[in-house]
From TrEMBL:
GO terms (BP aspect): amino sugar catabolic process; peptidoglycan turnover
InterPro entries xrefs: Etherase_MurQ, MURQ/GCKR, SIS_dom, SIS_dom_sf
Database matches in CDD domains: SIS_Etherase
Xref: Pfam families: GKRP_SIS_N (PF22645)
This protein's name: N-acetylmuramic acid 6-phosphate etherase
A GO term for molecular function: ether hydrolase activity
Keyword Lyase listed: yes
Domain SIS: 51-214
Amino acid sequence: MEETERADEALRDLERRSPRAVLDVLLAGQRRSLDAVEAALPAIERAVAAAAERLGERGRLIYCGAGTSGRIGLLDAVELGPTFDWPDARRHVLLAGGEASFGRTREGAEDDGAAGRAALLATEPTPADVCLMLAASGRTPFTLAAAEAARGAGALTVGLANNPGAPLLDACQHPILLRTGPEAVAGSTRLAAGTAQKAALNLFSTLLMIRLGKVFRGRMVDMRPTNAKLRARACRIVSEVTGCSDDEALAALRSSRGSIREAILAVEAVR
């Protein structure tokens, strides 16, 4: 039995404990998830280095998973656009069960390996692409088949799983083991396993974007200022980086059609 499915016998009376005691147990599990991510930092670093080298000007990020793992991948993927101006055309999210599974569970879809392979091949993967494969168990047929198809097409594969010895880790060039162990509620991998996957993806994608030059002086210089809050943040970034006034920053942003990077260069060019 996989570690993520095994019951912790010390918690047999969990539902009979006080609410605060249950919360303490749940929080302890969340802390363990971050310990698991810390142990995986060398693997994450290696995966980012390989991904940055592969992507170039055309490579895509392809996220693939089922259930909770797939939706965690979706969360990371959709934030890359507004945060780092990563083009929508250069990211894909493959979730078992298709788009209908984004907001509604379709648990049986994860068992369809043929669908995983077909979904991955439909993206027409190339050696420039980086495929992020997520499965808490590490043996989900949909994700495993997709990983094998991606690797067969020459794409770089990064596998995130929470069980040691998981087939997904063997199927991917860059395995990332997030060993969270048994869940407080046996088998509920939306808890510690899910938290570890989310944190690991946060680290992976943020370091990747830094490596690709999308962060300058600790700031999101490729951020899309698409609402009032983000426009104010863009102005602040330009003024903080260049030392100009808010009025100068606003003028530069207007001239650059909202591009923070171009606004910074424009201000510095006249100084």
